[in-house]
Specification:
By secondary structure, the chain is α/β, with parallel strands linked by helices. The chain is built from 13 helices and 12 strands. The protein has a domain of 126 residues: Rossmann fold (3-Layer(aba) Sandwich).
């Protein structure tokens, strides 16, 4: 367990750097006060919330994909699908979860080494890391479609394409982006009905939270700090910060951009009422769990969240994977901040 947690910390830091470098220009503006968009725009129209993830036009009256169909991925590469892909590899945990949620277990022929959800993903052939997968394994998989996400650089994507591998990249920056990606995969794989079901649940979760916190005044909104790896937090422009806003909180690190290392003194000054942390993370230097590190920091005993024991752990995968379970993370955040409002 400790080894898995240590590896997760390394991957999270890699994801942080990859996200900061490659996603700065992609995605829609975060809505920090929890306004919800029309779900129909995401489930039945041809445009994603993220300009970097163009969507194909769909035919909702038939709920069947009309092949051949064309679509561009987040890198601007245009793909033509003559039929639904029958052999699919995913080397990104969030996208792996999305593909399994669409009921594509029998078509998935490979996943990244540490893809662990759902349980069936653990039994699939392993394709290497999420940042730099095993080229030989990918070639041997003979996949019609290889899906990757935010952790893989465009340069690595291009190197794989140079090997004639059909790599489709998504770059979700917001909850809307994550939803739009599920719609996209549903269309590509002719699983639009399943995609609608998933998107409907995610929008229901979001609407539940938005309705619960909509009457909070600015003064009533709780100041929140989130730490997903020792010493690392998230600023504006990323889905994790957006979740805080949707849940009715104010991210005390939002004046920074993307994923970055914290200033311990600054967090003391900001005095958050609630601290969220990613459960299961063990620091590879001190061998201490993340919660213990937070509680033992010098001066942090002054922070209201520490004084009032409002240090709340959330399953790390609900926080850092922009996939079908992302709104479960949103619900957990909202319940942690406002247990009397969100049941």
């Amino acid at each position: 367990m400790a080894m898995e947690a240590k590896w997760t910390r390394t991957v999270l830091l890699g994801l942080s750097l990859a996200t900061a470098l490659s996603l700065a220009a992609c995605g829609a503006k975060n809505n920090q006060l929890g306004e919800i968009v029309d779900p129909a725009q995401l489930s039945s129209q041809g445009t994603s919330a993220a300009q970097g993830t163009p969507q194909p036009t769909r035919a909702p009256e038939t709920h069947k994909t009309n092949y051949p169909m064309k679509i561009k991925d987040a890198t601007g590469m245009e793909f033509t699908f003559d039929k639904a892909p029958q052999r699919i590899v995913s080397v990104s945990p969030a996208e792996t979860e999305g593909l399994f949620a669409l009921g594509l277990d029998d078509r998935i022929v490979g996943v990244a080494d540490y893809d662990d959800y759902p349980e069936a993903a653990k039994a699939k052939p392993k394709m290497g890391s999420i940042v730099k997968p095993n080229q030989e394994a990918l070639l041997a998989a003979n996949a019609d479609l290889i899906v990757t996400g935010v952790s893989m650089s465009d340069e690595t994507v291009q190197k794989l394409r140079d090997l004639q591998l059909n790599v489709f990249k998504v770059e979700p920056k917001t909850l809307d982006d994550a939803i739009a990606d599920i719609v996209t995969f549903g269309i590509i794989t002719d699983r639009q009905g399943e995609a609608d079901r998933i998107v409907g649940q995610m929008n229901d979760d979001r609407q539940k939270v938005v309705n619960a916190v909509k009457d909070l005044t600015l003064e009533q909104r709780q100041k929140v700090y989130i730490e997903f790896s020792p010493g690392w937090t998230v600023g504006s422009g990323e889905f994790m910060s957006e979740l805080i806003g949707l849940a009715g909180g104010i991210n005390v690190a939002a004046d920074g951009k993307g994923w970055y290392q914290i200033s311990e003194e600054k967090i003391i000054e900001q005095n958050p009422a609630v601290i969220f942390y990613a459960q299961g993370i063990i620091d590879d230097k001190s061998n201490k769990p993340l919660e213990q590190i937070i509680r033992e920091r010098s001066g942090w005993e002054q922070i209201d969240a520490v004084k009032n024991n409002r240090i709340i752990g959330i399953d790390q995968n609900l926080l850092n994977r922009p996939g079908p379970r992302l709104t479960q993370g949103l619900l957990e955040m909202a319940k942690g901040m406002y247990p009397d409002l969100v049941k």
